[in-house]
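2.7 Reproducibility. Because tokenized structures are sensitive to small changes in the input, we list the exact sequence used for Carboxynorspermidine/carboxyspermidine decarboxylase, including any N-terminal residues retained from the expression construct. No trimming or masking was applied before prediction.
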Amino acid sequence: MSQYMDGTTSSSLYEVKLGREKFGGETHAYSVAYADDEIDEVLEQADKIIFNSAGQLARFGERAVARNVVRGLRVNPGISSSDFTLADPARPFSRLGEWENERIEAVIGDVSGFMIHNNCENTDFGLFDSLLSQVEERFGHFLQRLDWVSLGGGIHFTGEGYPLDALADRLKAFSDRFGVQVYLEPGEAAITKSTTLEVSVLDTLYNGKHLAIVDSSVEAHMLDLLIYRLSAKMKPNTGSHQFMVCGKSCLAGDIFGEFSFEAPLKVGDRLSIEDAAGYTMVKKNWFNGVKMPAIAIRQLNGDIELVKEFGYGDYVASLS
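Resulting structure tokens (single pass, no recycling of outputs):
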């Protein structure tokens, strides 16, 4: 991916170190709050540091100056695309960025850029355009005094049918209007449809519905499905035989979803959970001691390369 992207951003010390060491390029550091015992190490890794508040900027800004690290501030326009309060940066009493113009005005001379991250899985270009227009209206008098603006992630521009040319034109117009370098931080958009979770059927039951138990767990391996109450994706998902595909943990609601199949599922059948890259490897856990899926790469010629396996030692090390 480093062949196609200019660098990385982060939300913690460990992420900024990983970005610098493994990806290279321009490295941006951001955190909701930095601690005294980590800020110097963060600055060693970063080209830009984005502070979440005027207070953090006042506390650590001079250290950034001393290390020639460019300073930025997260600002919150109070609007977002999120349908989930849990993931809404504009939720009431949000801690994510500065809201008030007076507080921003007091520190605008100490930063050269803003981060404005208010999109969340936004597949609608029209909504993105509207949100950006509101940002321009609210913060335009600040934006014209800056050198760069990061619009964060959450813009699902790799979705099917997304108008990429319109997005590029809108970003260029924003850049030209305010004379700023524009950054995007593609997260899930960078790995859309890149990964599957391969599972096997261990048992089948009937309890008013046909159930299939697989050798995985939503709680342990695809936690966001539980958090946001979403169903997993499976293809082709056609046929007259419907099964509820369930995880093997003791959590009663450990359910991937209900899917259709051409034939009844049986023990040993292999299923592919689609689009499984986003927020899985970074959130996987050892709940119930359920075995962790191995990580493998399918090469362009079809060969499978095993990259990493997890065993009992990893489980023990995670606990003690």
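The mean pLDDT is 96.
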